Amino acid sequence: MKRSIVYHPDLRLKKLCAPISDITDDLRQTAVDMLETMYAAPGIGLAAPQIGMFSRVVVMDCEKRDEAQPNPIIMFNPEITAHSEETSVYEEGCLSIPEHFAEVTRPGEVEVAWVDMNGTCQKQGFDGLWATCVQHEIDHLNGKLFIDYIGVIKRQMITRKMQKFKRELARKKDF
Ligand code: NI
């Protein structure tokens, strides 16, 4: 089932998410719903706070559309265990901040440990867009957004435009 996405500015996007101690069927269903929501948007990553849930869950699929088979990854309790000194810059966006983009510098490669749908621990290295995406999504679990990396002037401008976008959205819903 597709869930509705929480838009910035919203205090729910600022919350620290709790670690998961037990992978229940409910949680597995939430992760599947998150993937469905992400693909429908469309986007390449989604974190639990973006659907108003505060457990450490992220989903991603950074394969280019049309080119490859879908390659969804569901992560519970993801953690960056190592990162490169080398950085890379990507123009990032976010499903909670639609139509706004900004360049963010992050480590170019990261190693991530997580628990998968079967409760098994996984560890894998990521580079390129995958590396940026996994760092962006883990940030969400700590209440951090990509606009927190950019200058205050641009951040305030984006926030004002998002407030206007949300007002218009609310107005449309009233009719
Ligand atoms: Ni995001």
Structure description:
The protein is an alpha+beta fold and 175 residues long. It has helices at 25-40, 128-141, 152-174, and strands at residues 45-47, 57-60, 73-83, 87-92, 102-107, 109-115, 121-127. The strands form 2 sheets. It has a 5-stranded antiparallel sheet. Nickel (II) ion binds next to helix 2.
Structural class from helices and strands? alpha+beta
Q: What's the overall average pLDDT, rounded?
A: 96
CATH architecture: Alpha-Beta Complex
Reported for the largest beta sheet, the result is: 5 strands, antiparallel
* N-end to C-end Cα span: 25 Å
Helix content: 25-40%
Q: Provide the domain count.
A: 1
**CATH homologous superfamily caption:** Peptide deformylase
Please work out how many helical segments DSSP would assign: 3
CATH topology: Peptide Deformylase
Low-confidence stretches: none
Characterize the overall form: globular
Strand content: 25-35%
> Which CATH top level class fits?
Alpha Beta
- Quantity of strands, as a count: 7
Q: What is the element string, with H for helices and E for strands?
A: HEEEEEEEHH
